[in-house]
Amino acid sequence: MQATQGHSIDADRGCSSLERIPSTTPIAALSGITKAFGPTLASDGIDFTVLPGEIVGLVGGNGAGKSTFMRVLCGAVRPDAGTIALAGIAMDTAFYNAAAAQAGGIRMVHQELSLCVNLTVAENFYLEAPEAAAARPGWRAVYRARARAALDVVFPDNAIDVDRPVGDLPIGQRQMVEIARAAAVPGLRLMILDEPTSSLGPERSRQLRAFVESSAREGLAFIFISHKLHEIVDVASHVVVLRNGRVAWTGDIENTRVDAVGGMLGGRV
To answer: Which residues contact 202 (CB under 8 A, 6 or more apart)?
Structure first.
C-alpha cells in the first residue's frame, strides 16, 4: 500500500494536517540492527523498512526481540551495530535518541500506559505535544479541542469527558486516550501500536482498525504489534515475524497464512 502524505491532527480544529514525503521513500529504514544485553543477543542483524501508508504487522513470541527492536527505532535504546535512516536521511546511531525519532514523526503507544492519572484527558494531550501552548492565552481550550477531535476520529461515539482526570476512567478508556493522544501529534508519520486492543472490546477494536486503514490511505504508516493473529491478518498490508532476535519471515498479507505464522511463533517452522 502506498500513499504520498503523512498525517496529524490540527491543534486547534482537530482536522487532518498532511505533510508530503515521496511514497517510495521509507519513513524508516533500519539495516543490520544488532543489540546485546550481556550474553543475550536481543536483536541480531535485523533489516526493516516501512513505507508511507504501509501497515506492518509485527509478530513474535515472548522474548522474540520485538520490544528491543522497537525501542531502537524509537531512540530509547542505542544499537551496538547497524544503520538507521528516517525519510531518506541517515542518522548517526551514536546520537540517535527519542528526540530524533520524534522529530522524524515517530510515536509509539506502549502496552504499559504512560498517562498521568492525576491530570485530565486534555492535560495529558498537552504533555505529549506542548508546543501549541507556547505564549498563548487559553491554551487549555486548544488541547480540549485536540483531545475531543482525536478521540472522535479514532473512536466515534466514545463519550469520554476530556476534562475528567484520567485516573477516574476505566482501563479501556485510558487505552483509547493513549492511542488518540499519539494520533494527534503534529507531524506524525509512523505510529507504533503495541498490543493496542488488549483492553478494548470488540467494537472499539474494530474502530481502531478502521482508523488505521483510513489513515494509511492518507499516508500515515503503522507498525501493529499483536498476539491476536486475526487482527494482524485483518489490518496489515505486510507481516514481519521475529524469532530469537532475527527476522524469521516477512511477506505481503496476501501471502500470509495464520497457521504458518502460528507455527513460526511456536518454533516449528
So the answer is: none
